[in-house]
Amino acid sequence: MVSERLARNGRFHFCKYITIAADSSNSSQETNHSQNNDSPGMPLISTLMNENNYIPWSRSVKLALGAKDKLGYINGEIAKPASTAKKYKMWKKTDCLVAAWILSSILKEHAEGFIYCSSTKDLWEEIQ
Question: Mind listing the pLDDT tens digit for each residue in 87-112?
Answer without folding.
Answer: 999 999 999 999 999 999 999 988 88
